[in-house]
Amino acid sequence: MMKNSHPRHRTSLIHHMVLITLTCLLFSAPAAAQETPIPLLRFPTQSLTAGQSASLFAYYHNETIEILPLSPPPSLMLELINHSGTTRLLDAHATTETPMVELLPGQFYRLEYQLALPQDLSAILDVRLAEYPDAITRINVEPALHLAEAANAGDGNGSATVTYRSLKDMESLYQSYTADLFTYEPIYFLVGSDPSKSTFQLSFKYRLLNRSGTLSQKYPWLSGLFFAYTQTSFWDLDSDSIPFNDTSYKPQLMFQTENLSRLDAMAGFFVRSGLSHESNGRDGSSSRSTNYFYLKPMAVFYHQASRLGIMISPKFLVYVNNEDDTNPDLPDYRGHVELETRIGRAHSLMLTTNLRFARKGTSVQTDLTYPIDRLIGNNLNVYLHLQYSNSLAESLVDYKERSEVFRLGLSFFR
């Protein structure tokens, strides 16, 4: 156990932060601000099926005589218009990361998006960008799950049973809002160098309001409202009964902005804020709980040629209604300021560091992840995950103790 931060430890943290800052400067030389070109929309096929996912390609063309910095949006808001003029709004999401690129004069840049076609679509539709009505194309959407073919195979009056290709196809009839469910914090299972300090974490966030609904259309910022939930468990794998030592339950209500960056040197700038609760679900003297408001700006830099990305994200916390009976001094161990940094290449090695600055000492957690399919073939969709933690208040029940441990395992979202 370590009781206080060592001065040499603090010096290494400062060196780490300086190195990240210098790397940011190296890969983010400023360029003159220019307008993003309106993309040309094209579907690989003009005949699509309702209830299925469809690919859409957006072509960006530099029609100027100068090099044009381009930061494609991660999603496109589309208007689908039928022959009677009825309009539906759908989101198309990029299938890959959307880094900043530089287009030479006359050069095209193509980016693939995916959109989920609703089950009840069946018509020839005009598709255009909500923001740029002149960017338009046309598609023919067939009835869901080849209903026409199934009807022809029946008694001729359309009464034949529809054959669903997968369980997901059938579930989609009842699960209308899965497109609004997202991953949030990392999801992992890690075994500690001391097995009694093993851990796993689950996390998700859920968009509360329909982006195509009347409220979000009138007040677009409302589509940034989310409910999020993270559960972190500390598992004693060294004991015969392998009990859980402690579990933190962390629901929160949060708001997240779209990309606010107006700088060519910065691929993305986002702000996340919210009200978070954390407790361990126990009673008596082992009960721990707290609440806090937080503000978390996120600056993202990306170098297209090297595929190297960097994120710098401080977090500021204000505690409210902290449990004064069993953990009155928790803020002294957790702190009011945190700093998260990420550096790594797309679908490759990534290093994430989380620092917490508190009156009782500094805490650090470092996570190194690498896609396993780059090591042993292209079959497993998981990351090899190495974690080092030297932290106060890593678990709520022992928040006054400093824990130092290496962990190794798998993560499903990093």
TrEMBL record:
<feature type="active site" description="Proton acceptor">
    <location>
        <position position="277"/>
    </location>
</feature>
<dbReference type="InterPro" id="IPR003187">
    <property type="entry name" value="PLipase_A1"/>
</dbReference>
<protein>
    <recommendedName>
        <fullName>Phosphatidylcholine 1-acylhydrolase</fullName>
        <ecNumber>3.1.1.32</ecNumber>
        <ecNumber>3.1.1.4</ecNumber>
    </recommendedName>
</protein>
<feature type="binding site" description="in dimeric form">
    <location>
        <position position="287"/>
    </location>
    <ligand>
        <name>Ca(2+)</name>
    </ligand>
</feature>
<feature type="signal peptide">
    <location>
        <begin position="1"/>
        <end position="33"/>
    </location>
</feature>
<dbReference type="GO" id="GO:0008970">
    <property type="term" value="F:phospholipase A1 activity"/>
</dbReference>
<feature type="binding site" description="in dimeric form">
    <location>
        <position position="241"/>
    </location>
    <ligand>
        <name>Ca(2+)</name>
    </ligand>
</feature>
<keyword id="KW-0732">Signal</keyword>
<dbReference type="GO" id="GO:0046872">
    <property type="term" value="F:metal ion binding"/>
</dbReference>
<keyword id="KW-0443">Lipid metabolism</keyword>
<keyword id="KW-0442">Lipid degradation</keyword>
<dbReference type="GO" id="GO:0009279">
    <property type="term" value="C:cell outer membrane"/>
</dbReference>
<comment type="subunit">
    <text>Homodimer; dimerization is reversible, and the dimeric form is the active one.</text>
</comment>
<comment type="similarity">
    <text>Belongs to the phospholipase A1 family.</text>
</comment>
<keyword id="KW-0998">Cell outer membrane</keyword>
<dbReference type="Pfam" id="PF02253">
    <property type="entry name" value="PLA1"/>
</dbReference>
<feature type="binding site" description="in dimeric form">
    <location>
        <position position="282"/>
    </location>
    <ligand>
        <name>Ca(2+)</name>
    </ligand>
</feature>
<dbReference type="InterPro" id="IPR036541">
    <property type="entry name" value="PLipase_A1_sf"/>
</dbReference>
<keyword id="KW-0812">Transmembrane</keyword>
<keyword id="KW-0472">Membrane</keyword>
<feature type="active site" description="Nucleophile">
    <location>
        <position position="279"/>
    </location>
</feature>
<keyword id="KW-1134">Transmembrane beta strand</keyword>
<dbReference type="GO" id="GO:0016042">
    <property type="term" value="P:lipid catabolic process"/>
</dbReference>
<keyword id="KW-0378">Hydrolase</keyword>
<keyword id="KW-0479">Metal-binding</keyword>
<keyword id="KW-0106">Calcium</keyword>
<dbReference type="GO" id="GO:0004623">
    <property type="term" value="F:phospholipase A2 activity"/>
</dbReference>
